[in-house]
Amino acid sequence: MDSIIARVDAWLIALAFAVAMLACWSLGWRRGRHFSAESGEDPGTKFIDGSVAILGLLLAFTFAMSLGRHDHRRLTVVDESNAIGDFYTCASLLKEPYRSRLQTVIRDYTQNLLDTSQEPLLEVKEKETIKRWLAIYDRMTEIVNEAIAAGTPIAVPLTNTLNDVTSSSGSRLAAYRERLPWSIVLLLFLSSIAPSFLIGEKQGASHKVHLLGSFSFIVLVALVIFVTFDLNQPHRGLIRVSQDSLEVVTHSMAK
Fold first, then answer.
1. What domain range includes position 111?
2. pLDDT for 139-175, tens place per residue?
3. pLDDT tens-digit profile of 56-103?
4. How far is CA 117 from CA 80, 82, 83, 152, in A?
5. Is 10 inside any structural domain?
6. The pLDDT of residue 71
């Protein structure tokens, strides 16, 4: 279920929420027309207020989760960029031919990261990308082993920076795989349509239709959901993780 949600664009999810809320409001209004409005305070309004409050809490909760994960992805990109820069600096201290060979591999790896940073890593494509990265890691490790066997005096920092690159890459990949659980999405969906139905029923019972207020409520909720799910999809959409740090590292390693 999580993989299915990850494939759907954020605007389609927001549109589905808006259509469902509008349909439930219409059903509630039609049902409310069969009831007469009661004089005095209606206890049913408390359910409307409670459902709207729950919806607000869930919207705030899911938005905070998506924003936090977006910031975490941004930080992992910065950490990996720093690790690559440190590794490249160590490689520049090696003697030939290890220096040129390792620098070339590091440049290829960084450029590969930039090329795949905005692509959706799903299923087969993700496996192919990871397989390509593992092949580059093997080439890096092989060159480092050869340099250490040749007696390079920077064996320790060279090994540490290589480990930092592989560790930061794993952290970044894990951060990009994080998505909102489908159970939270389902709960958010139910919490969106419930107040819409209750509001429509109340308006139908009173024989008064507040189109502007109802549509404004639906549109605002849909916009919040759109931004929330756009933050939840790092490889596409309007809000993407900045790759400026990787681009800076790539330019600094240019021949």
1. 2-33+43-252
2. 999 999 999 999 889 999 999 999 999 999 888 888 8
3. 999 999 999 999 999 999 999 999 999 999 999 999 999 989 999 999
4. 13, 16, 17, 34
5. yes
6. 92
Chain Cα centroid distance, residue 239: 9
Distance CA(175)–CA(75), nearest Å, equals 10
Position 38 in a domain: no
User: What does each C-alpha distance from 230 to 2, 51, 238 come to in angstroms?
Assistant: 15, 25, 7
Q: Is 20 part of a structural domain of the chain?
A: yes
In a domain, 71, yes or no: yes
- Residue labelled with tokens 């299923």: 123
Q: Which amino acid is at 110?
A: T
Q: Does residue 239 contact residue 227 with C-beta atoms inside 8 Å?
A: yes
For the chain, how many structural domains are there in total?
1
**CA-closest candidate to residue 227, choices 242, 217, 237:** 237
